[in-house]
Amino acid sequence: MLLIACPHCGPREQTEFVCGGESHIERPPTPEALTDHDWGQYLFMRKNPKGWHYERWLHAQGCRRWFNVARHTVSHEVRATYPMGQPPPVIEG
Amino acid sequence: MPEAYRRQGPLDHLHIAARPPATAVGARLSEKRFLGKINLRLEPETDALEAVRGVVGAAPPTAIGGVALAEGRTILCYGPNEWLLVVPPGAERALVPALEAALGGRHVAVTEVSETLAVVNLSGPDARGVLAKGCTLDLHPRVFGPGRCARSGLAKAVALIHQLDDEPSYDLYVDRTFAEYLWLWLEDAASTMIGIGRI
Questions:
Q1: Per-residue pLDDT averaged across A34-59, rounded?
Q2: Distances (CA, A) of A10 to A3, A5, B140, B198
Q3: Domain span at residue B99?
Q4: What pLDDT score was predicted for residue B1?
Q5: How much is the pLDDT for B196?
Q6: Is A65 at the interface with chain B, CB within 8 A?
Q7: Same-domain pairing of B134 and B184
Q8: Which of A8, A15, A60 sits opposite B64 (nearest CB)?
């Protein structure tokens, strides 16, 4: 069970949240110029790191807002939570 | 809104008045029927808060979990730009047009949600312990006291919990379709309370 600090509501239990997968994925500015391979990369290919992972989470049972979480995929440590639109924090190690 | 003689509360089919009251335990359940509820969405940086204060009598609190009271009206803040305004039954009919007029032209949403939410009051010395059985919030008075609210999971439903006083007494706002489930769950949870968890 994770304790996740919602940027709006403070620390809450993991059961209140929904994970929305990898964050900071930008839609290509000119999709019509993309090859099928690049479009497939944008649509389907996701990082699967062993280490720090930046994810979108939804506080579904609280304020119902999306935000970003920096989570370690091995230890499940949540190092940072930050609102949508902010750049990912730099995490050492 | 349906015609008055056809209006049914979300718990009417349980015939609450005929159910045996849980007198042996220190937690009482009651339904607050037909309260007017208005969902408010606006950006707190703007002068819209002042416009709401002019109509309602109290400015919406900007801190999440904050509660403002004014002449029987309650404003609960449960999101960064979201409030629930609770008024006595019927008062919402005049208040919604008044709010829309006062906020006219701004990027806001005033939505009447009276029939969406059921309100269950849970009070008594064991009320905190009953809530704690199904809720992961820290309900200790030093963290969550009178004049606080929070939206969180309660049993397998989602409820907006508002603590009214030190007894303690809580108003639970739950989606209408979850009202029966939550009521029966609370009855069951209260029936096995024997004073544990009192503070």
A1: 95
A2: 10, 5, 16, 25
A3: 36-112
A4: 60
A5: 59
A6: yes
A7: yes
A8: A8
- One-letter amino acid for residue B97 of the chain: P
DSSP states of B134-183: T--S---TTTS-TTEEEEEEETTEEEEEEEEETTTEEEEEEEGGGHHHHH
ipTM score for this prediction: 0.86
Angstrom distance (rounded) from CA B130 to CA B193: 7
CATH 3.40.50.300 for the A3-25+39-83 domain, yes or no:
no
What is the rounded average pLDDT for all residues in chain B? 90
B80: chain A residues, CB-CB within 8 Å: 8, 63, 65
**A64 in contact with chain B, both atoms CB, cutoff 8 A:** yes
Domain boundary among B112, B144, B174: B112
Q: Using an 8 Å Cβ cutoff, are A30 and A42 in contact? A: no
Q: How far is B79 from chain A (nearest CA, A)?
A: 5
Q: How many helices (H) and strands (E) does chain A have?
A: 1, 6
User: In this predicted structure, what is the pLDDT of residue B20?
Assistant: 74
* Helix and strand element counts for chain B (H, E): 4, 10
